[in-house]
Amino acid sequence: MNSSYQQVREEARGMADAPVRVLIADDQALLRGSFRLLIDSTPGMKAIAEAEDGARAVQLARELKPDVVLMDLRMPVMDGIAATREICSDETLTAVRVLALTMFDMDEYVYPALQAGASGFMLKDVSPADLVAGIRVIATGEGVLAPTVTRRLIANFSRTDETTRAAPRLVGLTKREQEVLVLIANGLSNAEISGQLVISLPTVKTHVSSLLAKLHARDRAQLVIIAYESGLAERGMPT
């Protein structure tokens, strides 16, 4: 198993069994039913509603205020990107997190979905255990990115001319914070960053918290986007 997914599962096992309320948005009834069965059979987790398109997902999110929305990216009426943008820009839904789901590891919708505010994405063929763990971690405000495709996908969709990039200002970051940000963009977990930089895990978490505050990012997924859009991820570790 990929070490990043392993960390997600370990973090999820260590969390309290507070009920996580999940809204399922997918245009395929069979998949919605499968996700509902998985979620409802998981202790401390409940599927509160289903939506067959993006517009309905937005409506239900506003009515029910779930903890997590499982958002299919390819749906009729309103696609998952537009629905994610509506939910994440709604000031009454700041506690709602979106976990984007896609069938393909190079789906051109994934990067725009992260830009729209999704806290992460997973492939639909992810194992049930990893999906449940991902939902739990997303519910705490963390980000989850499918590690097999993160670097390739983000780099592909953020490849724009330097003069046209609306690059976030990174001048306020320390050298160590830049190093941590590059490693986050490379898909490393906190434990892996700790090992590579030879610093304690609490110190890594402090740096991540500082990055979130300084860059006004919602979660780890947004840090990945900022690292690529600023060009820092492509330049690599600061010297």
TrEMBL record:
<dbReference type="InterPro" id="IPR039420">
    <property type="entry name" value="WalR-like"/>
</dbReference>
<dbReference type="Pfam" id="PF00196">
    <property type="entry name" value="GerE"/>
</dbReference>
<keyword id="KW-0597">Phosphoprotein</keyword>
<keyword id="KW-0238">DNA-binding</keyword>
<feature type="domain" description="Response regulatory">
    <location>
        <begin position="21"/>
        <end position="139"/>
    </location>
</feature>
<protein>
    <submittedName>
        <fullName>Response regulator</fullName>
    </submittedName>
</protein>
<dbReference type="Pfam" id="PF00072">
    <property type="entry name" value="Response_reg"/>
</dbReference>
<feature type="modified residue" description="4-aspartylphosphate">
    <location>
        <position position="72"/>
    </location>
</feature>
<keyword id="KW-0805">Transcription regulation</keyword>
<dbReference type="InterPro" id="IPR058245">
    <property type="entry name" value="NreC/VraR/RcsB-like_REC"/>
</dbReference>
<dbReference type="InterPro" id="IPR001789">
    <property type="entry name" value="Sig_transdc_resp-reg_receiver"/>
</dbReference>
<dbReference type="InterPro" id="IPR000792">
    <property type="entry name" value="Tscrpt_reg_LuxR_C"/>
</dbReference>
<dbReference type="InterPro" id="IPR011006">
    <property type="entry name" value="CheY-like_superfamily"/>
</dbReference>
<feature type="domain" description="HTH luxR-type">
    <location>
        <begin position="166"/>
        <end position="231"/>
    </location>
</feature>
<dbReference type="InterPro" id="IPR016032">
    <property type="entry name" value="Sig_transdc_resp-reg_C-effctor"/>
</dbReference>
<keyword id="KW-0804">Transcription</keyword>
